[in-house]
């Protein structure tokens, strides 16, 4: 079942990167799954005894119907990206942060996690084995999806006896339709994404299916996504289904503080540091929905969305348009500052980039 990596990789090397990626319209390439050559798989037990990991051809998993992940949602995932530079090297952005977030999330979901070195090594191996799928420089990235799931069988409610750590990749372009163009958001006032004491602050798979209903309804009405409010007072902005949110007022940047219900986004953290280094005042604090509506500029951040400007927010019958619907200056500046570091174009003064 498992093909020796070198034989397969040698065969693949006969296809140049350019051949693989030819015909893809990168300027209109979205965030769809495009299967690649290899994935990484490593199994372990509940005590954290991990077997040797291996690269296997990308394909389906065989899994028990009573696997913990299928029955009780025991799983966490990560998202990070690799970029091709102009001189054809491959860069990854802050993989250690993803590794640490997985360790933290796994602890919350009663799972053993791979240690930081194992995580980074697995991600590197997977990217290198699928190198021909890393898009041309400036034309998207290779999205990396590490996944940790309870694959051992269990019937009574308890942690699964066995775990699988997986890494797969897919070349991607922009997340929202229309590229770096402002999105239209709707404030959700009935459903909540997370409650205090819940799992909103970790990247568990079980945080994502519940947002599909509201997202689907909003999309049906022409919005790109929804903004969630806090579950206690229904008054403070939390995050969008797939990303964090920032507001700008009089050049001061604010974003909801991390108080357990909001995902600690790595792009969120990077943008805070970048903006401060460029002289902006950045506050992490409760941001009310009224402030969101009164902002000069609003943008979202995430690995998948990068930095995406918000063109309008609708709250009940009220609709606010920011920046006349065009990309705001702060969003544009921070987008460029971040992506030029990620793509190796500007100096990596924060030491965020890891070269493969
Ligand atoms: C990411 O930005 O990497 C995420 O995991 C969000 C996901 C819903 C696409």
TrEMBL record:
Cofactor dependency: pyridoxal 5'-phosphate
Catalysed reactions listed for this entry: L-valine + 2-oxoglutarate = 3-methyl-2-oxobutanoate + L-glutamate; L-leucine + 2-oxoglutarate = 4-methyl-2-oxopentanoate + L-glutamate; L-isoleucine + 2-oxoglutarate = (S)-3-methyl-2-oxopentanoate + L-glutamate
Keyword Manganese attached: no
Keywords: Amino-acid biosynthesis, Aminotransferase, Branched-chain amino acid biosynthesis, Pyridoxal phosphate, Transferase
One annotated Gene Ontology cellular component of this protein: cytoplasm
EC number(s) given by UniProt: 2.6.1.42
GO biological process: amino acid biosynthetic process; branched-chain amino acid biosynthetic process
Family according to the record: Belongs to the class-IV pyridoxal-phosphate-dependent aminotransferase family.
Protein name: Branched-chain-amino-acid aminotransferase
Species: Physcomitrium patens (Spreading-leaved earth moss)
Covered residues, full protein: 82 to 437 of 438
């Amino acid at each position: 079942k498992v093909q020796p990596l070198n034989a397969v990789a040698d065969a693949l090397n006969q296809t140049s990167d350019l051949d693989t990626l030819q015909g893809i319209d990168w300027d209109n390439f979205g965030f769809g799954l495009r299967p690649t050559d290899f994935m990484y798989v490593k199994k372990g037990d509940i005590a954290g005894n991990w077997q040797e990991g291996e690269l296997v051809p990308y394909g389906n998993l065989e899994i028990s119907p009573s696997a913990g992940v299928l029955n009780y949602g025991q799983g966490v995932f990560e998202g990070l990206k690799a970029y091709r530079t102009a001189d054809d090297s491959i860069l990854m952005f802050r993989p250690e942060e993803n590794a640490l977030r997985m360790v933290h999330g796994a602890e919350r979901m009663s799972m053993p996690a791979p240690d930081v070195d194992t995580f980074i090594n697995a991600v590197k191996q997977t990217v290198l084995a699928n190198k021909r799928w890393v898009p041309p420089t400036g034309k998207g990235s290779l999205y990396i999806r590490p996944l940790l799931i309870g694959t051992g069988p269990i019937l009574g409610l308890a942690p699964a006896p066995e775990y699988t750590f997986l890494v797969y990749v897919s070349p991607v372009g922009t997340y929202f339709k229309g590229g770096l163009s402002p999105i239209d958001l709707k404030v959700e006032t009935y459903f909540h994404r997370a409650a205090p004491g819940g799992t909103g602050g970790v990247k568990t798979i079980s945080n994502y299916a519940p947002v599909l209903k509201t997202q689907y309804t909003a999309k049906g009405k022409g919005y790109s996504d929804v903004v969630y409010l806090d579950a206690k007072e229904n008054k403070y902005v939390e995050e969008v289904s797939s990303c964090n949110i920032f507001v700008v007022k009089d050049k001061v940047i604010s974003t909801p503080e991390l108080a357990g219900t909001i995902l600690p986004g790595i792009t969120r953290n990077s943008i805070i540091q970048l903006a401060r280094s460029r002289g902006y005042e950045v506050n992490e604090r409760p941001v009310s929905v009224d402030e969101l509506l009164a902002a000069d500029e609003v943008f979202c951040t995430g690995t998948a969305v990068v930095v995406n400007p918000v063109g309008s927010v609708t709250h009940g019958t009220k609709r606010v348009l920011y920046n006349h619907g065009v990309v705001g200056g702060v969003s544009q500046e921070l987008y460029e500052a971040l992506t030029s570091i990620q793509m190796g174009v500007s100096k990596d003064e924060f030491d965020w980039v890891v070269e493969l």
